[in-house]
């Protein structure tokens, strides 16, 4: 019996080409979009698609926003 996944976490980063990319931790799900509003929709759709035949899909999707800044001194 497979344990139910209560929560799935995505690392969200700005794409060098523009827009945003989201990668799930511990599950092979990747998606991208031009803006954050669209990315939220794409992430929900990707999770539903990935878990379409799973009896208990994740109840919570967490987006962890990562912004990398380089400072010159």
Total DSSP helices: 1
Mean pLDDT: 93
Number of domains: 1
Distance between the termini: 55 Å
User: Which strand-content bin applies to the residues?
Assistant: 25-35%
- CATH top level is Alpha Beta
What order do the strands of the largest sheet run in, or round the barrel if closed?
A: 3-2-1-4
- Globular, elongated, flat, extended or rod-shaped: what is the shape? elongated
What's the number of extended β-strand segments?
4
Structural class estimated from helices and strands:
alpha+beta
Largest sheet entry? 4 strands, mixed
User: Any idea what the CATH architecture is?
Assistant: 2-Layer Sandwich
Question: SSE string, helix = H, strand = E?
Answer: EEEHE
Q: Poorly predicted ranges (pLDDT <50, ≥5 residues)?
A: none
What proportion of the residues is helical, as a percent range? Answer: 10-25%
CATH-defined fold name: TTHA1013/TTHA0281-like
Radius of gyration computed on alpha carbons: 14 Å
List keywords for this structure.
single chain, TTHA1013/TTHA0281-like, 21% helix, elongated
Structure write-up:
This protein has one helix at residues 36-50; strands spanning 7-14, 20-24, 30-33, 60-66. The protein has a single domain, classed as TTHA1013/TTHA0281-like (2-Layer Sandwich). The chain contains 1 helix and 4 strands, in the order βββαβ. The chain has a 4-stranded mixed beta sheet, covered by helices on one side. With 73 residues, the chain is an alpha+beta fold. It is 21% helix and 33% strand. Strand 1 (7-14) and strand 2 form a beta hairpin.
């Amino acid at each position: 019996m497979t344990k139910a996944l209560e929560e799935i976490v995505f690392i969200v980063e700005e794409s060098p080409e523009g827009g945003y990319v989201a990668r799930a931790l511990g599950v092979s799900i990747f998606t991208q979009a031009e803006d954050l509003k669209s990315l939220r929709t794409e992430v929900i759709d990707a999770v539903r698609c990935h878990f379409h035949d799973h009896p208990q899909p994740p109840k919570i999707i967490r987006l962890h926003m990562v912004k990398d800044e380089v400072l010159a001194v």
